[in-house]
Write a structure and sequence with these properties.
60 residues, mainly alpha
């Protein structure tokens, strides 16, 4: 495996949110992609308070 792919693999393993997209062809497409909603509803939801608790647990 080439060295640059090893770095990307290490990063990929640490991300909890993954969204597979094609390469960005136009400058405005990235912002549009982030705003787009295709009716996707996540199965798991977390509140800000729950996220703070998790974050504090990991920081200990």
């Amino acid at each position: 495996m080439p060295e640059d792919e090893k770095v990307l693999t290490a990063l990929y393993d640490r991300l909890l949110l993954r969204y597979v997209v094609e390469y960005i062809k136009n400058d405005g497409d990235f912002e549009e992609m982030l705003k787009r909603c295709d009716g996707y509803t996540p199965k798991t939801r977390i509140t800000k308070d729950e996220l703070k608790i998790i974050n504090n647990t990991w920081l200990r």
